[in-house]
Design brief:
mainly alpha
Length: 102
C-alpha cells in the first residue's frame, strides 16, 4: 500500500480490502470500496464482480456492465468485449470470460 496508504486509511480501508481507484479525465481519482469477489456463481457474474461492479440479476445485465466498463456501452458481442479486456491486460477477467465465450 506504500504510496497510497494515507488515502486508504483516510477512507477507513485496510490492507486486503478490495477498492477501485477511478482515474478521472481531469487528473484526479476517486476511492471506491467494492464488495468481495463473488465465487460460485455463473462465470459472467463472477466477471462482473471482478471489475468491481455491483451484482447484477441476469446474464444480459452482466454483459451490459462488462461492455460499459471497457468503454463499449451497448456492445453485446462477446468477442469484442473479450478483446477489449485482453487489450487492457485484465488477465483474471479474461480467464473467466474465456470459460463462457470460447
Amino acid at each position: 500500500m506504500g504510496t497510497i496508504r494515507r488515502l486508504i486509511e483516510h477512507h477507513g480501508g485496510r490492507e486486503g480490502d478490495r477498492v477501485l481507484l477511478v482515474f478521472t479525465d481531469d487528473g484526479r481519482f476517486e476511492y471506491r470500496p467494492v464488495a468481495p469477489v463473488v465465487r460460485g456463481g455463473t462465470p459472467l457474474h463472477a466477471a462482473v464482480s471482478l471489475i468491481g461492479h455491483d451484482p447484477v440479476s441476469s446474464d444480459a445485465d452482466a454483459i451490459e456492465a462488462l461492455a460499459a466498463a471497457v468503454g463499449q456501452p451497448g456492445e453485446d458481442r462477446p468477442r469484442r468485449i473479450l478483446s477489449a479486456y485482453r487489450r487492457r491486460h485484465e488477465h483474471e477477467v479474461v480467464s473467466v470470460l474465456e470459460q463462457v465465450w470460447l
